[in-house]
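Run log, item B.
One chain of 402 residues. Sequence copied directly from the ordering sheet:
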Amino acid sequence: MRIGYLINTYPRPSHSFIRREIAALERNGVFVHRFAMRGQAEALTDPADLAEHAATERILEAGAPQLLGSVLKQAAANPRAFISALRQARTRASAGESSLLRQLIYLAEGARVAARAHALRLDHIHAHFGTNSTRVAAYAQLFGGPGFSFTVHGPEEFDDPGGLDLGGKIAASRFCVAISSFGRSQLYRWADPSDWTKIKVVHCGIDMSNWTAIKSMPIKDQTHLVAVGRFAEQKGFGLLIGAFAEAWKQNPALRLCLVGDGDLRPQIEARIAAEGMQKAVTLLGWQDESGVRAAMDSAHALVVPSFAEGLPVVIMEAMASTRPCIATYIAGIPELLRPGVDGWVVPAGDSAALASAMLEVAATDAETLQRMGLGARERVMARHDIDDSARQLMALFSQHIG
């Protein structure tokens, strides 16, 4: 089985879940060729990400002459397919998916991917995210490339599903993967009912071989919380700082560590200073996988205050680390995290509820937190083993290749 993986910008620090999925497929005997439209080497520090960057073919690095040459070759070989692709480019531009110029760039990228897929004898293309990477895969199919599938993660795809033509992409695909039942329900909203059988749930996951040790709960002289992610509006970090300030005033033994960075960092730093919480809140910046693991191991619980999500891998990692979680009741999170069993689930945007949950963690003894963490570990190992997910994908690939 020879599969091409297609992602717009890859790898990124936040794309470790894709890297793990590819590695799991390869462990199970699948040949995977990585395509990206572009790279982001300057943002990478993790050795595994740097190795993945070296293993990835970046389509735009072929240069304009190569891309144009691919288009001309495809046009000469199959004029009908070329005309069909041009019509689709105009249609998608008129529908507002992007400008006509961008559609033509996607078309050229698709022609290049089709040519490379033929040279590499690929059986199938799988794209991640229902955005432009899937559009490129659809153009590649029009130009005689292999059939394609794609994984929709959310929340970005669900912000403009009509503009992204999710229904049309599902119709053109061999199948579509949602990472949760919630994600599948959202795709049902935009797909023709005749295409519902194409939509499959395959959980993203983690490599359980990296989580063999059971971590004991830290001594509870203080209560340490950790949050991991981009400092962006949808991640709810601004709300988290306000909620933590309220909880910290009631319990000065609370401590919060933020792992990540982003546009909201100045506002977050200003709020920390305004509340006088410099000794209570630590900003670690971006960390590689070992740094994230160390921060989780030092904490009593993970906090995920997001307003919009797919199904956060960081929750899976915390659960595998035997750490209970505080998270918001959105998207696929309630499918994984059981309130009162694996942690606390609070309404999104509710600062008072978030503060209350943090105070509950502080009031819970270490033995109870450890027991919750062990149950969380069992649950994530049963539901989110990346090798199980890879085997599900392999079965879908096999079913649709031929």
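Observations after the first pass:
- Residues 100-120 form the longest helix (21 residues).
- The CA atoms of residues 174 and 400 lie 7 Å apart.
Flagged for discussion on Thursday.
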